[in-house]
Amino acid sequence: MTVQIRPAALDDLHLICRLRQQRASWLAARGSDQWSTEASGLSIDYFARVVDRALTAGETWIAEVHGEPAGTITVNDRADKELWTAAELADSLIVHYLIVDVRYSGHGVGRRLLAHAAALARTRGRSWVRLDAWTTNTDLHAYYRRAGFRLVRIAGPDRPSPSCALFERHIGEWQTDDALVGARPAAFPMTSLTESPVVLPVLG
């Protein structure tokens, strides 16, 4: 099985919202409050507006398996106010909205999207991939640890965000045999991937 990563287009907004709703339902069925509005998660309408801006800016990608959408990721240099220091933000790219279709859970799609984020960080001269995870979702924390990230800290109780578990991974920690990380920097500009989607094997 291979995964193809392509830049998301404006007409992928409905797909991304569907993936988010699917995963939110999956989480709720397992007792997690992640993304619920009751726990201060973004409403689907607000989420759609944020993702629409990211799509317009060329910051969002879609993973496809055999031509079928399997996941999405947004990568940029912005984060919720006060979660990261200015120095941390200056040397990193930030992962947002990493969502894998439940049909492809456990097949390495998320890890390949994270490797794509590392490649983008490398091309931008950044040393770190950083992200904030839902504070109470310890299963998600374990997932990021298995993916090679370390927990930096839990942002203090004065932070309004429900996603205050801060994780990071240095780009040098990705294996050099990952096709994205080992590629020439010019192959992965932030805004001009449309002509040459990246095809990677999924290793699990």
**What's the mean pLDDT score?**
85
Estimate nothing, just give the exact number of structural domains. 1
The sequence of SSEs as H and E is EHHEEHEHEHEEHE
Gyration radius, rounded: 16 Å
Assign the CATH class. Alpha Beta
Label the structural class: alpha+beta
Strand order of the largest sheet: 6-7-5-4-3-2-1-8
Shape: globular
Number of DSSP strand runs: 8
User: Under CATH, the topology is which?
Assistant: Aminopeptidase
Helix proportion range: 25-40%
Poorly predicted regions? 176-204
Distance between the termini: 10 Å
- Kindly estimate the percentage of residues that lie in beta strands according to DSSP: 25-35%
Number of helices: 6
Major beta sheet summary: 8 strands, mixed
CATH homologous superfamily grouping = Gcn5-related N-acetyltransferase (GNAT)
CATH architecture: 3-Layer(aba) Sandwich
